[in-house]
Known about the structure:
Blueprint: H1 4-17, H2 25-33, E1 41-47, E2 55-61, H3 66-75, H4 81-88, E3 93-95, H5 96-99, H6 102-105, H7 109-114, E4 122-129, E5 136-143, H8 152-178, E6 188-191, E7 197-200, H9 202-211, E8 233-237, E9 240-247, E10 250-257, H10 266-276, H11 281-288, H12 292-306, H13 311-322
Antiparallel strand pairs: 1-2, 1-5, 3-4, 4-5, 6-7, 6-10, 8-9, 9-10
Helix pairs in contact: 1-8, 2-8, 10-12, 10-13, 11-12
Protein name: LuxR family transcriptional regulator
Keywords: DNA-binding, Transcription, Transcription regulation
GO molecular function: DNA binding
Amino acid sequence: MPGPQLNEIILKIYQSCRGLPVHDFKDWAMTTVRNVVDFDSGLWATAQNVVSEAFNSVYLFRQPWEMIENYAREIGIADDKLAQAAIANPGRTMILHEVVPYDEFITIPMYLKHGRHFGVEHALCTCHISSVSQIPTAISFYRADRNRPFSEEDRQAKEILVPHMIEAMRINLFASLLGAEGRQGEALAFCDAQGVLYETTSAFTALVAAVRPDWRGPRLDWPSLPLDGVNTTRWSTGDLTFEASPCRDLFLVRAKRENVLARLSPRQLAVAEMLARGKQYKDIGRALGISPSTVTNHVNQIHERLEIRKREELVELFNSKLH
């Protein structure tokens, strides 16, 4: 089993992640974990979902970008038995030669059209799915020497390391772009121009899930108007209000629950509050110095603005917004 050195590396990752520039973190982390699991090159990528070949982000460690282009052109997930095994076993690190025996591996397209061109003789692959955003992340380590296969101890060490690497990267992203404290208590997220989430705070996911129980991520309800990468854009969906501000090549999204009662005028709010307390129209009119017919007009407008039909719905709104 992995020993004390692994614990030291994990501690080092957390101690250092807040102070590193965001664009340097993955390279630093991959270099650091080589002290525990030695490898020659690697990949760190996130995708829109576990079956998608459209990556949100890709970082290659000591590999050229041609590796991704060649993979998309020649292989893909459909012919990648290691990726399939990792996706089928999220959180578990898979050893290539246990999925495909080495003697077989060197005869199939995965090796002949791809692996041998990029020094991939042996590989460890882990698929981690975020419990917060449901975003899948794949981290792979490669060795170029066919005589140095990864061991079971290597596999166990990587399996322990990967969730810590991903969590430290999330801390690094928020700390780097929002300040040292990272504002983890706020409902914040980073996404791309299509509304696909990269990272979220737990408060963001909890808020969206509370208002939209059917939401599973990783895509937001995105505004129909294009985001120009310069100006802040605001929009609402249901009881949620979003604000997206350009932040380098991503967008920082703030979410908050809309106070729907703010849609009412002061007089409508006064009528609504008394209506919610069980007052009759004539009592409301007497208290506000208006006729019952005017009260009726206000009630109709209240129902329209709040998109409700019954007094019970109004009572529920007041209970949730004011108490």
